UniProtKB/TrEMBL annotation:
Lineage: superkingdom: Bacteria
Name of the molecule in the record: DUF3455 domain-containing protein
Segment forming the signal sequence: 1-25
Record bears the keyword Cell membrane: no
Keywords attached to this entry: Signal
Amino acid sequence: MKRAGLVLVSTALLGVALGGAGSTAAPTPAAMDVSDARVAPAVQVPSGNKLVAKFYAKGVQTYICTAGAWKLLEPAATLADRLGRAVALHSRGPIWVSTVDGSAVEAAPVDGARNEIPGAVPELLLKSKSTRGKGVFAGVSYVQRLATKGGVAPAGGCQESDQTSVNYEALYTFSAPVR
């Protein structure tokens, strides 16, 4: 049964990668670039870590109605390199999986490490819980979600168990310990 679920999630994410699920085009790297000087202090990666990858995401934040309010269910996004080539998928966990080398990182938000962005999901700092593989995500210690656009849950009430997906874009950075 787990395999069937993985196939459904993979198919949904592939739809995002190919322009489905509300996606209209590949992320635009130039428009989403953020310099270190513009990163809010709350979401900065601690010293002793170095940037190992930076990808631009486009996808959806899916919400489910629980007790009359929208609650985040899962993200589904495709990450692209600076040339716009799809290189990774982002899904519930949260987890990021490279479509190039199969490496993956799962992370959890760092308490209090968020920067509110009007009209967009917040910028976040996440700490790695686990990694696998020998590729781009091997040894990642921190993930940042920056330069967010959209993805905010709808305003107002909802009917129990309803789901909705809201388009979003973000810049994800991946850092690893300096060795």
